[in-house]
Design brief:
alpha+beta; Spore Coat Polysaccharide Biosynthesis Protein SpsA, Chain A; 2 domains; 9-stranded mixed sheet; 6-stranded mixed sheet; 28% helix; elongated
Length: 482
């Protein structure tokens, strides 16, 4: 039994001659097997959908539609890329026009896009418009697309309904499928309970002195680092995913929070932090840390972490690295995702040998051979004194990137000084640094919570604030288990 027969035991498989003429031509090869009187659905094979099929049929039939397109609009992560989809012009969910590969307006997320599920009220209707499409030779990239049949139907006055879905899982390109698999693995992992809380005998510092301007520009209610992530402030999650430390410092610019009640920083979420006001804008992340660490014992070990990351990694492996006194510094990295591969100039990069000793660092530019791991903004230093030594080296040699001092560059400096910098490759990295990255996280969290074939549930999420579940889970989120 092949895979398709295992998935759908009652399906009927038909072989057709090999061709490159698209899905309409493919379906045309089995017209004689489709009853003229039967409602008919043509469904593409490279996507997934969260929807209620019975609701779709009910919605379509109640509207006495001649055809129907299953579609979505609003924020969907794959829509951040090139608009390589079928977009719909509509009124009250009735199709007026449809076109492939480009939106009708500048704001593509406000338009319906087809997910690839196409309904016809009868086999006769489908056959007629498929034949007409081929007769008129209406092709897209030399193929006959099902979507174009609805353009013909609308032109002839037939009623084509639109049924909106919540989640569209785009798998049409390798990078789309890779993104889906990565997020699926992440949400599987974060609902597995940790055996115990890790502890490192070092200072933990989270610099958060940036303006979070992109979040401001999009009118988020709170400063970026206080934005809700699974019922906790973002910066709390950035700390909670790392080992506990005896001393914890949070470096902020108080002026950023002038319209926020600073008592927020005195609640239980931040009770373990020493809050350091670094004053005005600094010369970058490294300079912010310099101010925060000024009064700290220079012999203490130091862990510096970004304020907008959640990371999943082997904690026992990290502990063993910290205990290895031959290692001077550790830079946390991940396998580059599609965003990093597409925009390498936005990231720091590390090349290391087979024993994971860092050989080279590139900051905000890729290596010539475009290899390496991506720096994710978390660093360990054998001592606070070593941190200051590396920063001094940057300043003396005037090593800035985009007119700022980067901790990535400090690691590069240490490598140049023949110090042992270790490339610690983590399992998964969730970046929340931009509004779109934040929305992407929420999108997949919502989907996997609802998906009946996935193990994730927010009540099993080790990072979710259990006291806040009722507030953040609406009725739609409960479809999986209601």
């Amino acid at each position: 039994m092949n895979l398709l027969e295992r998935i759908a035991p009652k399906c009927q498989l038909y072989k057709i001659p090999k061709h490159k003429k698209g899905p309409v031509f493919a379906v045309q090869q089995i017209f004689d097997l489709i009853d003229d009187a039967d409602e008919t659905i043509v469904n593409y094979c490279d996507f997934g959908t969260f929807w209620d099929y019975k609701s779709f049929l009910s919605h379509t039939r109640k509207r006495s539609a001649d055809g129907a397109v299953v579609a979505y609009k609003g924020f969907h992560p794959h829509m951040l890329k090139n608009p390589n989809y079928a977009f719909i012009k509509e009124s009250e969910q009735w199709l007026i026009n449809i076109q492939e590969k480009k939106p009708f307006t500048e704001n593509k997320m406000n338009e319906y896009a087809s997910n690839g599920t196409y309904y016809f009220s009868s086999g006769r209707m489908m056959k007629h418009f498929f034949d007409l499409l081929i007769k008129k030779d209406i092709k897209i990239n030399d193929e006959y697309y099902v979507s174009m049949a609805y353009k013909l139907m609308a032109e002839e006055g037939y009623k084509v309904s639109i049924f909106e879905i919540e989640h569209m899982l785009q798998w049409g390109a390798p990078e789309d499928l890779e993104d889906y698999i990565r997020w699926s693995e992440i949400f599987s992992k974060i609902c597995k309970k940790k055996s115990k809380k890790e502890y490192l005998n070092c200072v933990k510092l989270i610099p958060a002195a940036g303006e979070g301007k992109r979040f401001q520009d999009e009118n988020f209610e709170k400063p970026k680092i206080l934005t809700d992530v699974s019922g906790f402030p973002m910066i709390y999650q950035a700390s909670a995913c790392l080992p506990e430390c005896k001393e914890n410092y949070l470096a902020i610019r108080r002026e950023i929070f002038e319209n926020i009640d600073l008592d927020l920083f005195q609640n239980e979420y931040f009770s373990k932090f020493n809050i350091v006001d670094v004053g005005d804008l600094t010369e970058g992340q490294a300079s912010t840390c310099e101010i925060a660490l000024k009064g700290v014992d220079k012999n203490k070990e130091c862990l510096v972490a970004s304020s907008d990351n959640i990371v999943l990694f082997d904690s026992l492996k990290l502990q063993s690295l910290v205990q290895d006194k031959s290692i001077d510094s550790i830079v946390f990295t991940s396998v580059p995702n599609n965003k990093a591969l597409t925009n390498p100039e936005m990231f720091g990069w590390v090349n290391s040998d087979n024993s994971n000793r860092v050989l080279d660092v590139a900051v905000k530019k890729p290596f010539k051979d475009k290899t390496g791991s991506v720096i994710i903004g978390i660093f360990y230093f054998r001592s606070v004194g070593l941190f200051f030594k590396a920063l001094k080296g940057l300043k003396e040699n005037k090593i800035k990137v985009n007119n700022e001092y980067y901790i990535d560059s400090m690691c590069e400096y240490l490598v140049r000084q023949n110090m042992n910098v270790y490339d610690f490759k983590i399992d998964h990295h969730i970046s929340l640094g931009t509004p779109d990255e934040y929305r992407t996280f929420l999108y997949w969290q919502s989907y996997f919570h609802k998906a009946i074939d996935h193990e994730y549930l927010i009540k099993k999420d080790i990072y979710y604030n259990k006291d806040e579940i009722g507030k953040f889970v609406n009725s739609k989120w409960e479809q999986k288990h209601s």
